[in-house]
Amino acid sequence: MISDRKLEHLLICEHFDVQYKNKKTGFDDVDFIHNSLPEIDMDKIDLSTKKFGKKLDIPLFITAITGGHPKATYINQQLAIAAESEKIGFGLGSQRAAIENPELEYTYNVARENAPSTILVGNIGASQVNYSMKAIEILDADILAIHLNPLQEAIQIEGDVDATGIIDSIGEIVDNVNVPVMVKETGAGISAENAKILENKNISFIDIAGAGGTSWAGVETYRLKEKYLGEVFWDWGIPTAVSTVEVSNSVNIPVISSGGIKSGLDAAKAIALGSDAVGMALPFLKKAYLGSDAIIGFIQNFEKSLKLAMFLVGATNIEELKKSNLMIKGETHSWLNERGFNTKKYTRRT
Known about the structure:
It is a single chain. By secondary structure, this protein is an alpha/beta fold. The chain has a single domain (2-346), classed as Aldolase class I (TIM Barrel). Helices cover 42% and strands 11% of the residues. The protein has helices at 2-15, 72-86, 96-100, 106-114, 132-139, 150-155, 166-176, 192-200, 216-221, 228-232, 240-248, 264-272, 282-288, 292-313, 318-321, 330-338; strands spanning 30-32, 60-62, 89-91, 120-125, 143-148, 181-185, 205-207, 255-258, 277-280, 326-328. Helix 2 (72-86) packs parallel to helix 4 and helix 12 packs across helix 14.
Protein backbone atom coordinates (compact mmCIF):
# COMPACT_ATOMS: atom_id res chain seq x y z
CA MET A 1 0.00 0.00 0.00
CA ILE A 2 1.07 3.59 -0.69
CA SER A 3 0.40 4.54 2.93
CA ASP A 4 2.74 1.84 4.23
CA ARG A 5 5.43 2.99 1.80
CA LYS A 6 5.14 6.54 3.14
CA LEU A 7 5.75 5.26 6.66
CA GLU A 8 8.74 3.21 5.51
CA HIS A 9 10.25 6.31 3.89
CA LEU A 10 9.82 8.29 7.11
CA LEU A 11 11.40 5.61 9.26
CA ILE A 12 14.32 5.10 6.89
CA CYS A 13 15.06 8.85 6.78
CA GLU A 14 14.83 9.02 10.56
CA HIS A 15 17.03 6.03 11.41
CA PHE A 16 19.47 5.50 8.52
CA ASP A 17 22.11 7.49 6.70
CA VAL A 18 20.42 8.42 3.41
CA GLN A 19 22.83 11.14 2.31
CA TYR A 20 24.90 11.00 -0.86
CA LYS A 21 28.11 9.09 -0.13
CA ASN A 22 30.76 10.63 -2.37
CA LYS A 23 28.98 13.36 -4.34
CA LYS A 24 28.62 16.73 -2.62
CA THR A 25 26.38 19.71 -3.33
CA GLY A 26 29.23 21.80 -4.76
CA PHE A 27 28.75 24.68 -2.31
CA ASP A 28 32.15 23.92 -0.76
CA ASP A 29 33.59 25.03 -4.13
CA VAL A 30 31.87 28.43 -3.83
CA ASP A 31 33.41 31.30 -1.85
CA PHE A 32 32.19 34.85 -1.44
CA ILE A 33 34.59 37.74 -1.94
CA HIS A 34 34.67 39.27 1.54
CA ASN A 35 33.67 42.93 1.76
CA SER A 36 35.63 44.71 4.51
CA LEU A 37 33.65 47.91 3.87
CA PRO A 38 30.03 46.72 3.72
CA GLU A 39 28.58 50.18 4.56
CA ILE A 40 25.24 48.69 5.66
CA ASP A 41 23.38 48.12 8.94
CA MET A 42 22.97 44.38 9.50
CA ASP A 43 19.82 45.00 11.55
CA LYS A 44 18.18 46.58 8.50
CA ILE A 45 18.85 43.74 6.05
CA ASP A 46 15.62 42.63 4.35
CA LEU A 47 15.37 38.89 3.68
CA SER A 48 11.84 38.95 2.29
CA THR A 49 10.72 37.95 -1.18
CA LYS A 50 7.45 38.11 -3.09
CA LYS A 51 8.56 35.98 -6.04
CA PHE A 52 6.22 33.10 -5.16
CA GLY A 53 2.86 34.85 -4.91
CA LYS A 54 2.77 35.68 -1.21
CA LYS A 55 5.37 37.48 0.83
CA LEU A 56 7.89 35.21 2.54
CA ASP A 57 9.81 36.80 5.41
CA ILE A 58 12.72 34.48 4.63
CA PRO A 59 13.42 33.00 1.16
CA LEU A 60 13.01 29.48 2.51
CA PHE A 61 10.74 26.52 1.80
CA ILE A 62 10.25 23.36 3.78
CA THR A 63 10.29 21.15 0.71
CA ALA A 64 8.14 18.06 0.23
CA ILE A 65 8.45 15.66 3.14
CA THR A 66 5.42 13.56 3.99
CA GLY A 67 1.71 12.81 4.21
CA GLY A 68 -0.50 9.84 3.49
CA HIS A 69 0.05 7.92 6.72
CA PRO A 70 -1.44 8.65 10.17
CA LYS A 71 2.04 9.04 11.66
CA ALA A 72 2.72 11.88 9.22
CA THR A 73 -0.03 14.01 10.77
CA TYR A 74 1.99 15.20 13.76
CA ILE A 75 5.00 15.99 11.56
CA ASN A 76 2.94 18.09 9.14
CA GLN A 77 1.20 19.84 12.02
CA GLN A 78 4.46 20.87 13.68
CA LEU A 79 6.04 21.95 10.40
CA ALA A 80 2.94 24.01 9.54
CA ILE A 81 2.96 25.77 12.91
CA ALA A 82 6.59 26.74 12.39
CA ALA A 83 6.08 27.79 8.75
CA GLU A 84 3.19 30.05 9.77
CA SER A 85 5.13 31.53 12.68
CA GLU A 86 8.22 32.39 10.61
CA LYS A 87 6.38 33.07 7.32
CA ILE A 88 8.25 30.58 5.16
CA GLY A 89 6.87 28.23 2.48
CA PHE A 90 5.81 24.65 3.21
CA GLY A 91 5.57 21.85 0.65
CA LEU A 92 3.77 18.58 1.38
CA GLY A 93 4.71 15.12 0.18
CA SER A 94 2.99 13.38 -2.74
CA GLN A 95 -0.78 13.54 -2.28
CA ARG A 96 -1.60 10.44 -4.27
CA ALA A 97 -2.29 8.43 -1.10
CA ALA A 98 -5.05 10.82 0.02
CA ILE A 99 -6.59 11.19 -3.42
CA GLU A 100 -6.91 7.42 -3.75
CA ASN A 101 -7.99 7.03 -0.10
CA PRO A 102 -9.91 10.10 1.16
CA GLU A 103 -9.66 8.83 4.73
CA LEU A 104 -6.04 10.03 4.67
CA GLU A 105 -6.83 13.62 3.65
CA TYR A 106 -6.43 14.83 7.23
CA THR A 107 -2.72 13.95 7.15
CA TYR A 108 -2.35 16.74 4.58
CA ASN A 109 -5.04 19.32 5.35
CA VAL A 110 -3.70 19.59 8.91
CA ALA A 111 -1.13 21.85 7.23
CA ARG A 112 -3.61 24.54 6.20
CA GLU A 113 -5.39 24.30 9.55
CA ASN A 114 -2.14 25.31 11.23
CA ALA A 115 -0.73 27.56 8.49
CA PRO A 116 -3.69 29.69 7.36
CA SER A 117 -1.73 32.44 5.63
CA THR A 118 1.68 31.24 4.44
CA ILE A 119 2.49 29.53 1.12
CA LEU A 120 1.49 25.86 0.95
CA VAL A 121 2.65 23.71 -1.96
CA GLY A 122 0.65 20.68 -3.10
CA ASN A 123 2.33 17.69 -4.73
CA ILE A 124 1.47 15.16 -7.43
CA GLY A 125 3.36 13.05 -9.95
CA ALA A 126 3.81 14.22 -13.53
CA SER A 127 1.51 11.53 -14.93
CA GLN A 128 -1.31 12.20 -12.43
CA VAL A 129 -3.24 14.69 -14.55
CA ASN A 130 -6.60 13.68 -13.09
CA TYR A 131 -5.36 14.27 -9.53
CA SER A 132 -4.32 17.89 -9.99
CA MET A 133 -7.42 19.80 -8.89
CA LYS A 134 -8.17 17.42 -6.02
CA ALA A 135 -4.63 17.88 -4.70
CA ILE A 136 -5.12 21.65 -4.66
CA GLU A 137 -8.53 21.30 -2.99
CA ILE A 138 -7.32 18.99 -0.19
CA LEU A 139 -4.58 21.39 0.82
CA ASP A 140 -6.06 24.72 -0.25
CA ALA A 141 -2.69 24.99 -2.00
CA ASP A 142 -1.19 28.23 -3.28
CA ILE A 143 1.10 26.35 -5.67
CA LEU A 144 0.91 22.84 -7.14
CA ALA A 145 4.22 21.00 -7.40
CA ILE A 146 4.76 18.25 -9.95
CA HIS A 147 7.53 15.99 -8.73
CA LEU A 148 10.00 14.32 -11.07
CA ASN A 149 11.62 11.16 -9.70
CA PRO A 150 12.75 8.82 -12.50
CA LEU A 151 15.75 7.64 -10.47
CA GLN A 152 13.63 6.77 -7.45
CA GLU A 153 11.01 5.02 -9.61
CA ALA A 154 13.72 2.95 -11.30
CA ILE A 155 15.10 1.74 -7.96
CA GLN A 156 11.78 1.40 -6.11
CA ILE A 157 10.16 -2.01 -5.72
CA GLU A 158 6.83 -0.64 -6.97
CA GLY A 159 8.39 1.84 -9.40
CA ASP A 160 6.82 2.99 -12.66
CA VAL A 161 9.50 3.15 -15.35
CA ASP A 162 7.26 4.16 -18.27
CA ALA A 163 8.15 7.85 -18.60
CA THR A 164 6.61 8.37 -22.04
CA GLY A 165 4.28 11.34 -22.35
CA ILE A 166 5.51 13.07 -19.18
CA ILE A 167 6.25 16.39 -20.87
CA ASP A 168 2.77 16.59 -22.40
CA SER A 169 1.22 15.62 -19.05
CA ILE A 170 2.97 18.54 -17.37
CA GLY A 171 1.57 20.90 -19.98
CA GLU A 172 -1.91 19.45 -19.49
CA ILE A 173 -1.73 19.95 -15.71
CA VAL A 174 -0.64 23.58 -16.20
CA ASP A 175 -3.64 24.13 -18.50
CA ASN A 176 -6.09 22.45 -16.11
CA VAL A 177 -5.34 24.08 -12.75
CA ASN A 178 -6.09 27.49 -11.30
CA VAL A 179 -2.87 28.00 -9.31
CA PRO A 180 0.77 28.39 -10.41
CA VAL A 181 2.62 25.15 -11.12
CA MET A 182 6.07 24.28 -9.84
CA VAL A 183 8.12 21.39 -11.19
CA LYS A 184 10.56 19.86 -8.73
CA GLU A 185 13.11 17.10 -8.85
CA THR A 186 13.57 14.79 -5.89
CA GLY A 187 17.32 14.90 -5.41
CA ALA A 188 18.99 14.32 -8.78
CA GLY A 189 18.92 17.89 -10.15
CA ILE A 190 17.58 19.54 -13.30
CA SER A 191 19.71 20.41 -16.32
CA ALA A 192 19.62 23.53 -18.48
CA GLU A 193 18.06 21.56 -21.32
CA ASN A 194 15.27 20.17 -19.14
CA ALA A 195 14.60 23.59 -17.62
CA LYS A 196 14.00 25.09 -21.07
CA ILE A 197 11.54 22.32 -21.92
CA LEU A 198 9.65 22.99 -18.67
CA GLU A 199 9.57 26.75 -19.26
CA ASN A 200 8.08 26.11 -22.69
CA LYS A 201 5.26 24.26 -20.92
CA ASN A 202 4.47 27.50 -19.04
CA ILE A 203 5.30 26.33 -15.55
CA SER A 204 5.74 29.12 -13.00
CA PHE A 205 8.58 27.83 -10.79
CA ILE A 206 11.36 25.23 -10.76
CA ASP A 207 12.81 23.54 -7.67
CA ILE A 208 16.04 22.00 -8.92
CA ALA A 209 16.46 19.61 -5.92
CA GLY A 210 20.03 18.73 -6.79
CA ALA A 211 22.39 15.98 -5.71
CA GLY A 212 24.37 16.11 -2.49
CA GLY A 213 21.66 15.88 0.15
CA THR A 214 19.23 13.00 0.53
CA SER A 215 19.66 10.24 -2.04
CA TRP A 216 16.29 8.71 -2.87
CA ALA A 217 18.10 5.89 -4.59
CA GLY A 218 19.67 5.37 -1.17
CA VAL A 219 16.32 5.51 0.62
CA GLU A 220 14.84 2.93 -1.71
CA THR A 221 17.93 0.73 -1.37
CA TYR A 222 17.08 0.14 2.28
CA ARG A 223 13.73 -1.28 1.14
CA LEU A 224 15.27 -3.75 -1.31
CA LYS A 225 16.32 -7.34 -0.75
CA GLU A 226 18.56 -7.14 -3.82
CA LYS A 227 20.48 -3.89 -3.31
CA TYR A 228 22.81 -3.92 -6.33
CA LEU A 229 21.13 -1.23 -8.48
CA GLY A 230 20.51 1.08 -5.55
CA GLU A 231 24.11 0.92 -4.42
CA VAL A 232 25.44 1.50 -7.96
CA PHE A 233 23.21 4.56 -8.53
CA TRP A 234 23.28 5.92 -4.96
CA ASP A 235 25.34 8.99 -6.02
CA TRP A 236 23.65 9.67 -9.38
CA GLY A 237 22.68 13.25 -10.16
CA ILE A 238 23.66 16.85 -10.87
CA PRO A 239 25.19 18.60 -7.83
CA THR A 240 22.95 21.29 -6.36
CA ALA A 241 25.32 24.20 -7.02
CA VAL A 242 25.77 23.13 -10.65
CA SER A 243 22.05 22.64 -11.25
CA THR A 244 21.33 26.03 -9.68
CA VAL A 245 23.65 27.77 -12.15
CA GLU A 246 22.42 25.78 -15.15
CA VAL A 247 18.73 26.42 -14.51
CA SER A 248 18.93 30.05 -13.34
CA ASN A 249 21.00 30.94 -16.42
CA SER A 250 18.62 29.19 -18.81
CA VAL A 251 15.07 30.25 -17.83
CA ASN A 252 13.26 33.43 -16.80
CA ILE A 253 11.15 32.02 -13.98
CA PRO A 254 11.85 31.91 -10.22
CA VAL A 255 14.10 29.07 -9.09
CA ILE A 256 14.30 27.28 -5.75
CA SER A 257 17.65 25.68 -4.93
CA SER A 258 17.37 22.60 -2.72
CA GLY A 259 19.29 19.41 -2.13
CA GLY A 260 21.78 19.28 0.74
CA ILE A 261 21.42 22.89 1.89
CA LYS A 262 22.04 22.99 5.63
CA SER A 263 22.58 26.63 6.64
CA GLY A 264 21.98 30.24 5.77
CA LEU A 265 25.50 30.39 4.35
CA ASP A 266 24.66 27.59 1.89
CA ALA A 267 21.49 29.51 1.08
CA ALA A 268 23.40 32.73 0.47
CA LYS A 269 25.67 30.91 -1.98
CA ALA A 270 22.69 29.39 -3.79
CA ILE A 271 20.98 32.77 -4.10
CA ALA A 272 24.20 34.42 -5.29
CA LEU A 273 24.44 31.66 -7.92
CA GLY A 274 20.99 32.62 -9.20
CA SER A 275 18.21 31.04 -7.15
CA ASP A 276 15.34 33.09 -5.70
CA ALA A 277 14.85 30.95 -2.61
CA VAL A 278 16.14 27.72 -1.10
CA GLY A 279 14.53 24.58 0.24
CA MET A 280 15.35 21.97 2.86
CA ALA A 281 13.64 18.73 3.79
CA LEU A 282 15.68 16.26 5.88
CA PRO A 283 16.94 18.87 8.41
CA PHE A 284 13.31 19.87 9.03
CA LEU A 285 12.17 16.27 9.35
CA LYS A 286 14.80 15.67 12.04
CA LYS A 287 13.56 18.71 13.98
CA ALA A 288 9.87 17.90 13.47
CA TYR A 289 9.99 15.00 15.91
CA LEU A 290 11.09 17.50 18.58
CA GLY A 291 8.13 19.82 17.98
CA SER A 292 7.47 23.24 16.51
CA ASP A 293 9.69 25.13 18.96
CA ALA A 294 12.73 23.17 17.78
CA ILE A 295 11.78 23.85 14.16
CA ILE A 296 11.36 27.57 14.84
CA GLY A 297 14.75 27.68 16.57
CA PHE A 298 16.33 26.03 13.55
CA ILE A 299 14.69 28.56 11.19
CA GLN A 300 15.87 31.46 13.32
CA ASN A 301 19.45 30.19 13.27
CA PHE A 302 19.16 29.81 9.51
CA GLU A 303 17.94 33.41 9.30
CA LYS A 304 20.86 34.66 11.40
CA SER A 305 23.46 32.91 9.26
CA LEU A 306 21.88 34.12 6.01
CA LYS A 307 21.76 37.67 7.32
CA LEU A 308 25.39 37.50 8.47
CA ALA A 309 26.53 36.26 5.05
CA MET A 310 24.67 39.17 3.45
CA PHE A 311 26.28 41.63 5.85
CA LEU A 312 29.75 40.33 4.98
CA VAL A 313 29.20 40.94 1.27
CA GLY A 314 27.35 44.24 1.75
CA ALA A 315 23.92 43.12 0.52
CA THR A 316 20.87 44.80 2.05
CA ASN A 317 18.30 42.57 0.29
CA ILE A 318 17.99 39.42 -1.77
CA GLU A 319 18.38 41.16 -5.13
CA GLU A 320 21.66 42.72 -3.99
CA LEU A 321 22.85 39.32 -2.74
CA LYS A 322 22.25 37.97 -6.25
CA LYS A 323 24.77 40.53 -7.53
CA SER A 324 27.53 39.77 -5.01
CA ASN A 325 30.96 38.52 -6.02
CA LEU A 326 31.83 34.82 -5.91
CA MET A 327 34.70 32.51 -6.71
CA ILE A 328 33.77 29.08 -8.11
CA LYS A 329 36.52 26.48 -7.79
CA GLY A 330 37.22 22.76 -8.06
CA GLU A 331 34.81 20.21 -9.50
CA THR A 332 31.98 22.73 -9.67
CA HIS A 333 34.15 25.05 -11.78
CA SER A 334 35.17 22.17 -14.07
CA TRP A 335 31.60 20.91 -14.47
CA LEU A 336 30.19 24.35 -15.31
CA ASN A 337 32.95 25.27 -17.72
CA GLU A 338 32.68 21.96 -19.56
CA ARG A 339 28.94 22.58 -19.84
CA GLY A 340 29.57 26.01 -21.36
CA PHE A 341 28.80 28.28 -18.39
CA ASN A 342 31.22 31.14 -17.83
CA THR A 343 32.15 31.16 -14.14
CA LYS A 344 34.18 34.37 -14.46
CA LYS A 345 31.01 36.42 -14.65
CA TYR A 346 30.44 35.77 -10.95
CA THR A 347 33.79 37.14 -9.77
CA ARG A 348 33.49 40.91 -10.42
CA ARG A 349 29.79 41.74 -10.65
CA THR A 350 29.76 44.80 -8.37
